[in-house]
Every structure is written in structure tokens, then in C-alpha cells.
């Protein structure tokens, strides 16, 4: 049985979206058990009773605008902190939260703890590409500054994730850079390039440019946390902006455009689906002793189900245990 | 008379697109003179004779895949190099090229030269926002590494550009960062923040996030060249990807979708226009002794006209002369 500790109180639509997602996932996956951390009175109205779901009551929770490190230190009884602590104490195998990202990163690092040998766990997400295959990118912002060796470890971790969780046999690893030639980039990129090219165990395909990211040029993309975060947010912002401009172009196009849009509706929904990050699951703080996964703040029940499926796969393939092994050999 | 040196041989559609753009601009703007650098035999077929256009013949040119610094050093007679040299020698007031970006940056730095006091000229473009106002961002990749003082100078330069060229009275300056709070970011961002906030002459509005860029949250956005380049390319790549996914969603939607798309055509063209970077002109290597402007490699005649209009405005407002003044006072 895979035991997943879920923070029921984090996210824009908590606890309803979280609890409804758990209700659905528990039906789909007979090999998971969920511990729901949060306010019992607020959880119960949405919960379908199931022997594999247990509420762990607490009234404290961390808000999305709280200073992460402080919140973790002060709110020892917060739903997110208790969920992380359950993993630390061996009561659960993984944590899921849609709440304050910084706080979850802090809880992951300070409560769950790093894998020995992994210097700086990185935030990893599977992002969608045009061809539907997607790619894994890290670090998406767990760190504001990284060294070449951190980036090298992200390549190893990312390859592990792509292999075990996504089932790729020989994932192509790219380094996000401002040009494709070997000599491109700042000193961080140049030194990282040399570390990656020197490791025969990595299928390193060289530098890739941000313009090509969504074209599926690599299976794993390595970036420092600052750049990874900026790129991720730019993808989100640009996609939203184009869609909203499409809407206003239609709205200002009169009856003709409205009729056209009506006919196009199914196609536009397909487009929206293909841009939908939530179906790929949440962002994993990867490099910790257990899966710690952040679902998007605006998660609905469907994205919670996807994220629970992702966690289940991580537990099934024991990707964390495999990483522990790998990094103990590296030492 | 404003004398503009144009590299007729740079860009995917050179010399035709360049020459045709010059033909149109010379009709529109009676106060410009154009020197066309390149192969006379290849230019002539497209050229409408005009007393304010002069061909300066040369057979050498720099290709898009050449190593920039080497190309500039070796090809002394290349159209781009001669155009830059015309500015240096006082024969022209500005340079335009749609060719090899790196080579143009090198020609700008080593032939035209920096404004005294400007440590690292930055690449600046006006990018489109949802509301049509746009924002200026720099550095978009002239440098792979920057110090806090470089970024501070980008704020000063960007504000100058927004004021003089775009006519904004008190441009809002934002620092691209991984969160809006003052304490966010790596050491580069933290130190830059303090420099910006300490200058009462700058309308510094604080940190802004990449997700908000296209929402018009600032008039000038300051970034280091590595991050600016990554963000610019991500915007381009994501917009292209969404549009291409829209196309395939329509294509796979059968007759109904095709009819809808037909009705929507005018609206879709409006969308395409609003996403069109070329109408905003080219990228300026700003901080040099004269306007050195890079038109997009895929420029058509229309974008060459826009870029010539932009250069004309830069010369009319003497934004470079004003910057020289400003930086001589800073010393």
C-alpha cells in the first residue's frame, strides 16, 4: 500500500478541490492510502468515506502569502508541516500540497530532508511540448543561485526521473543556454557543459535554446533555479496572453467571428487541453528522501488526481530509492 | 538630413526585403538619406532610384553562421563592417542590419564604440503587451554576464529610450526577478535592487515577475543578458507554439473547424498582428555612440520600414546625444 500524506488546506480551491480529487483517485488506484491533513469540519462535507482515507485533524494552516521559512518554524501544527512530518516519521511515503510553494520547499528540505550526496534538490516539472511527449525541466526555482555541480546533479536527477517515472530508456539531456555552440553562455553554463560532456553515463545532447523548448528537442532540460523559474513563468504568461488576445480578437470581430468561434469550440478546447500543465501532474522537489510534490495553486480536482497518479508512479518505480543508490555510489 | 547606413546583405530575405523596405521608407520620410552597403548587381534589380539613396558597392558579406568576432576582424570589406565604419568616420549617423546579430554587436562595440561611462551596452527591444503599449527590455543578450552596476545602467538607458523614443514622461522601471518582494532573487538581483531604489531620478517600481511581463506592468524591464535572452526566446517560442497548436487543432477538427476558421480569419489576422514583433522596430544595441539597430533576421520590407522609422525617431530625439550627456555627468 502506498501511503500519501495530503495537505487538504493548501491551494486556491482548498479543501474542496483537494478532497474531491482524493475521492476520485482513491477509486482509481486501489493501492494507495491517503492521510488528509487539515480541518475535519471543513473536509468532511466533501469527503466520500473510504477505509483508505483518514483525516488527521489540525486547525493550523500556512497561507499563500506567508514568509515560508518563518511559517514552517512557527506553525508546527500546520497541515503542510504535519504532512511532511508524517513522512519523516515513517507514517507516510510521500507528501502532496497545493499550498505555499516556498513553505513546501522549506518543509521538504528541513522536515523530509535531502538525499545524502544531493547538494541542492531542484524543482522538477514535466512541461508539455507540441508533440505531446513533454520534457522534464529542473531547477524551476527551488534555488536562486546554483553552481555547475548543482546543475550536473540536476542532469543526473532529471535523467532518473525521465527513466523511471516517464519510462524513457535513454533520455536526451539538454543544457538551457543562450546558443547551441559549446562555447556559449556565462561561466556557469560553460563549466556545467564540461561536467556533462565528461560523464559517459549521461546522454548529453548539448546546449539548447529557450526558443526550442516546446519543440521537444530534449527530454530533460537543465537550468539554474533563477533562469528555470523565469522561463517557466514566461511560458505560462505568454500562453495565457496569447489565449486572452485570441479571445479579444474574437470578441471584437462581430457576429461573423462569434459564429466562427462557436464552430471552432471543440478545436479550441483541444488547444486548451494541450496547453494544460495540470494534466502532467505537479512539481516535484526532487533530491529529497521521499516524493514531495507541489500541485499548482489553482488546482482543481482533476489536477489533484493527476498529481496523485504521478506520486503513485514515483512510489511504484521507487525513483527516490534508486536515486539514493546512485548518489551513494557517486560519493 | 538623417543619414542611415544600411547593410543590404544581412537577413534571410536580403537584399530584396531590405531594398524594398528602403524604397518605401524613403518615400515616407523625406528627411532621411540611405547608404546601401552591398553587392550593387544584386541590389539594383530591387532599387527604385532616388537621389536620397546611394549604393556603396562591396562584394564581401558576413554570413549568419560565422563566428562574430572573427568575421568582423577578417572581413574588413563586409557590408556590415563598412556600414559601421561609415558611422565611425562621420559619413553616417546610424547603422541598420538584419544580419548576424553577434557580428553586429561586435561591429557596434569595436567600430562604432561605447558612450564614455557606459560599461556594457545592452540590447534593447520594445516588446508588445496585451494593451498595445509595449515595454522596453534590456539586456536581451548582448552580454552573457552582468554586474549590478551594468543593470543599474540599463535602467538609466532604458528610461532614456522610453522617454525620448517612445515619449513616456515618467517610465516605470521594473527589475525582472523571481518574486516581487524586495528580498527576492540571487545576489545580482538583490544588489541591483538597492542601486535602483537609491536613485531618486529613477521611477523604480520594484521587482516584477516573468509571468506578468506581457501584462504591461512596467515600461522598462531590466535583466541581465543571459536571463533577458532566455525570456525573449521563451516568449517567441511559446507564442509560435501556441499558434501552431491552434492551427493543428483547427486542421484536425474537420469541416466544421475549417468553416469556423474561415469565419474567424480576420480576427486571427488581428491576433497575428498584435503578436508581431516586427512592427515595433528592431533591437537597439544601446549605449553606443550612435544608433546601431538589428532588424529581425526574417525581416520583410514592412519590418525594415518600421526599423528605419525607429532609427529616424532615435536621431530626431537625439536620444544618444542625451545619453552621452547623462553619463558624462555620472562620471
From TrEMBL, chains A, B:
GO terms for biological process, alphabetical: fatty acid biosynthetic process; phospholipid biosynthetic process
Residue ranges the record marks as coiled coil: none
Subcellular location, record wording: Cytoplasm
Keywords of the record: Acyltransferase, Cytoplasm, Lipid biosynthesis, Lipid metabolism, Phospholipid biosynthesis, Phospholipid metabolism, Transferase
Classification via SUPFAM superfamilies: Isocitrate/Isopropylmalate dehydrogenase-like
GO molecular function: phosphate:acyl-[acyl carrier protein] acyltransferase activity
Reaction catalysed by this enzyme: a fatty acyl-[ACP] + phosphate = an acyl phosphate + holo-[ACP]
This protein's pathway: Lipid metabolism; phospholipid metabolism
Pfam families: FA_synthesis
InterPro entries per record: FA_synthesis, Phospholipid_synth_PlsX-like
Root EC class: transferase
EC number(s) given by UniProt: 2.3.1.274
GO cellular component, one term: cytoplasm
Function summary: Catalyzes the reversible formation of acyl-phosphate (acyl-PO(4)) from acyl-[acyl-carrier-protein] (acyl-ACP). This enzyme utilizes acyl-ACP as fatty acyl donor, but not acyl-CoA.
Family note: Belongs to the PlsX family.
HAMAP family: PlsX
Subunit text: Homodimer. Probably interacts with PlsY.
NCBIfam families registered for this protein in UniProt: plsX
Protein name as it appears in the record: Phosphate acyltransferase
